[in-house]
Design a protein that fits this description.
Helix content: 40-55%
Mean pLDDT: 94
Distance between the termini: 15 Å
Number of strands: 4
Shape: globular
Order of helices and strands: EHHEEHHE
Number of helices: 4
Low-confidence stretches: none
Number of domains: 1
């Protein structure tokens, strides 16, 4: 099954690190609900990394999904509490998002 791969770099608003860490802890504490929403979106992997540098703080999102457009549409129409929390987090902390160029993607087929 071919999956779409997306990676984005999210510039954070100044002084957002405490809120970012609270968000990460909240999502971890509500892991099962987060995984359920990913399943509904068709997302198989979502990883988020923190990149702090002299030029600012950034989140780096890496996602694999059956369809990125479907994942975005499902998330946009979700009434789940965890998605509402995430959308509030984005409004409070995200400055702008840049999609990164995929240069190489290697994946081993499922081994049975």
């Amino acid at each position: 099954m071919t999956q779409e791969v997306v990676c984005a770099r999210v510039a954070l608003k100044p002084n957002s690190l405490q809120r970012v860490r609270e968000w990460a802890a909240f999502i971890s504490q509500h892991r099962e609900e987060a995984l359920q929403t990913l399943q509904l979106e068709g997302v198989t992997i979502e990883s988020v990394f923190l990149d702090s540098s002299p030029s600012g703080d950034f989140l780096v999102y890496y996602m694999r999904s059956a369809s990125q457009s479907k994942a975005e549409a499902v998330a946009a129409n979700s009434l789940a509490m965890i998605d509402a929390y995430h959308n509030t987090f984005k409004r409070e902390t995200w400055s702008h998002v840049d999609r990164l160029e995929l240069l190489l993607d290697l994946e081993l087929p499922n081994q049975i």
